[in-house]
């Protein structure tokens, strides 16, 4: 899919229409995933275990993995268990977080066609060294299926605005839940902790970045070069959420999935500068005031936002699809 460069719209993304901000043309877009009939014919007789094998295969094409994820959802996705989510252990380490200030112009130039400006990237500076204790992080973002169980048990909790007319999207049960507040994400973690006797919470910024990019500070979970077939950003040409885990070759060094693309993920921290850094009064801070940091990019955002170091948050617009994943104390 050919995107329109935003190089001449630097810093103006929040003043553009959704399609303009995504680099999309204004007319009909014929996406590669519009016809999955061949893929469904290939997998229609597969059982749940075989569908999971397709989803997790590094050798199957995206369309087949996508179709397998959709079918698995309708059969019942056994990868997802609300009261016992799959967690990945992240070992303790003394690691670097963030970006050297002298690298900011290089990053802006490298992603010039996305319309970013230096002040958005300056929030990643300076590069600092921090201690991270051993913790666990959920292999996938929290899904609609899991969130439905939460709402059913906690009547009165926020219904995601992405659930049109307040209806649970049964056809997207194994897609990440999105368009909720950080407070609701924290309520979910408290609820699950109470239900299970475990210690769930949102990951800190440091934990999230380490789990995504590893000790080598990778630019993206899979490496230092953006590859559109490894995550669900606008460049992938899907323009919708996808079943969790269908980009296995986009895994982080620890085996955590969907840390780039699909949905943006709230962390535990409100925005503040890193140690010895300066506060960046960008358009988000001026509009929202104090805001919760989000990480990871989404299906509505371009590749620059999928960088492991990128710090952002929810601008008051439906273009921002905000979800979360859990951390767990050991």
Structure description:
The structure is a single chain. By secondary structure, the protein is an alpha+beta fold. Helices cover 26% and strands 12% of the residues. The chain has helices at residues 18-21, 37-43, 48-56, 62-75, 104-110, 118-122, 144-153, 182-196, 205-213, 283-288; strands at residues 87-90, 93-97, 128-132, 135-138, 200-201, 264-270, 292-295, 312-313, 322-324, 327-329. The strands form three sheets. Strands 1-4-10-5 form a four-stranded antiparallel sheet. The chain has a four-stranded mixed sheet with strand order 8-7-6-9. Helix 2 (37-43) crosses helix 4 (62-75) and helix 3 runs antiparallel to helix 4 (62-75). The radius of gyration is 19 Å and the shape is globular. One of its GO terms (molecular function) is protein serine/threonine kinase activity. This is Serine/threonine protein kinase. It holds the Pfam family FGE-sulfatase. It comes from Guptibacillus hwajinpoensis.
- The average pLDDT score comes to 96
SSE-based structural type? alpha+beta
CATH class: Alpha Beta
CATH H-level superfamily title: paralog of FGE (formylglycine-generating enzyme)
CATH architecture: Alpha-Beta Complex
Strand order of the main beta sheet, please? 1-4-10-5
Put simply, the count of helices is: 10
State Rg. Answer: 19 Å
Q: How do the helices and strands follow one another from N- to C-terminus?
A: HHHHEEHHEEHHEHEHEEEE
- Main sheet? 4 strands, antiparallel
Question: Helix amount, in percent?
Answer: 25-40%
Shape verdict: globular
As for the CATH topology, it is: paralog of FGE (formylglycine-generating enzyme)
Strand content: 5-15%
Low-confidence stretches: none
Number of domains: 1
Terminal CA distance: 44 Å
- The strand count comes to 10
């Amino acid at each position: 899919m050919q995107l329109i460069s935003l190089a001449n719209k630097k810093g103006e993304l929040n003043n553009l229409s959704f399609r303009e901000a995504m680099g999309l043309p204004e007319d009909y877009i014929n996406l590669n995933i519009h016809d999955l009939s061949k893929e469904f014919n290939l997998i229609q007789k597969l059982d749940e275990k075989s569908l999971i094998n397709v989803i997790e295969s590094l050798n199957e094409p995206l369309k087949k993995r996508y179709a397998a994820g959709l079918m698995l959802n309708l059969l019942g996705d056994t990868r997802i268990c609300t009261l016992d989510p799959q967690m990945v252990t992240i070992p303790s380490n003394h690691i670097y977080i963030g970006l050297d200030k002298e690298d900011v112009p290089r990053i802006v130039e490298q992603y010039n066609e996305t319309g970013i400006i230096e002040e958005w990237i300056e929030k990643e500076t300076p590069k600092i060294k921090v201690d991270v204790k051993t913790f666990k992080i959920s292999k996938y973002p929290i899904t609609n299926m899991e969130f439905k169980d939460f709402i059913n048990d906690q009547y009165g909790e926020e219904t995601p605005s992405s659930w049109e007319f307040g209806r649970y999207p049964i056809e997207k049960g194994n897609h990440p839940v999105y368009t909720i507040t950080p407070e609701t994400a924290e309520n979910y973690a408290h609820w699950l902790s109470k239900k299970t006797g475990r210690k769930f919470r949102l990951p800190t910024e440091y934990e999230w970045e380490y789990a995504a990019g590893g000790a080598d500070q990778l630019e993206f979970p899979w490496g230092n070069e953006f590859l559109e077939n490894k995550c669900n950003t606008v460049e992938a040409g899907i323009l919708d959420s996808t079943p969790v885990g269908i980009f296995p070759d986009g895994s982080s060094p620890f085996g955590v999935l969907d840390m780039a693309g699909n949905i943006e993920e709230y962390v535990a921290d409100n925005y503040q500068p890193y140690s010895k850094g300066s506060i960046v009064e960008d358009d988000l801070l001026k509009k929202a005031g104090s805001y919760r940091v989000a990480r990871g990019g989404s299906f509505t955002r371009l590749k620059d936002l999928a960088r492991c170091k990128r710090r952002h948050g929810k601008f008051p617009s439906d273009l921002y699809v905000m979800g979360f994943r859990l951390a767990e104390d050991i």
